[in-house]
């Protein structure tokens, strides 16, 4: 029995399947290698004592303020855990690394858009569950 589509159509379908599979796997790899994330696997692999140590070792630039916005009342990098404000970066020291799903960094622009004007130095978001 002969296919109604013919041989060229079958080859195109096979090629599209291979391309879409390749794109899906590259997207998954891109999420894992995103510079704005520290994933659970990375944290457990290094056996950090707390979240601060993980950030300090893997992305220390997240802990430094980028610009001085005011000398009298400078804003600071804020830390959120499961979308609840904890405070400044020192609060990372109290977070058990075994409970972390991932840590995400937001620059000042992204943090201001998401949380408001008093987040100009950025945010470190620690997620322990979805």
Write out the CATH superfamily name of the largest domain.
TonB-dependent receptor, plug domain
List low-pLDDT spans: 18-32
Strand content: 15-25%
Q: Give the number of domains.
A: 2
Spatial strand arrangement across the major sheet: 1-4-5-2-3
CATH level-two architecture of the largest domain: Beta Complex
Order of helices and strands: HEHHEEEHE
The CATH class of the largest domain is identified as: Mainly Beta
Mean pLDDT: 81
Measured distance between first and last alpha carbons: 51 Å
- Please tell me how large the radius of gyration is: 21 Å
Number of strands: 5
Per the CATH scheme, the topology name of the largest domain is Ferric Hydroxamate Uptake Protein, Chain A, domain 1
The share of residues in helices is 25-40%
| Number of alpha- plus pi-helical segments | 4
- Estimated structural class: alpha+beta
Instruction: Give the overall form.
Output: globular
- Report on the biggest sheet: 5 strands, mixed
Descriptive terms for the model:
130 residues, alpha+beta, Ferric Hydroxamate Uptake Protein, Chain A, domain 1, 2 domains, five-stranded mixed β-sheet, 4 helices, 38% helix
């Amino acid at each position: 029995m002969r296919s109604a589509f013919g041989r060229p159509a079958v080859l195109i379908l096979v090629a599209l399947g291979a391309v879409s599979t390749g794109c899906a796997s590259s997207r998954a790899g891109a999420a894992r290698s995103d510079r704005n994330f520290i994933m659970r696997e990375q944290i457990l692999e290094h056996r950090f004592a707390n979240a601060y140590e993980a950030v300090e070792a893997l992305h220390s630039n997240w802990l430094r303020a980028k610009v001085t916005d005011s000398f009298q009342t400078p804003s600071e990098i804020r830390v959120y855990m499961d979308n609840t404000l904890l405070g400044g970066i020192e609060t990372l020291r109290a977070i058990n690394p075994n409970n972390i799903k991932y840590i995400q960094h937001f620059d000042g622009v992204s943090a201001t858009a998401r949380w408001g004007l008093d987040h100009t130095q950025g945010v470190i978001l620690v997620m322990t569950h979805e």
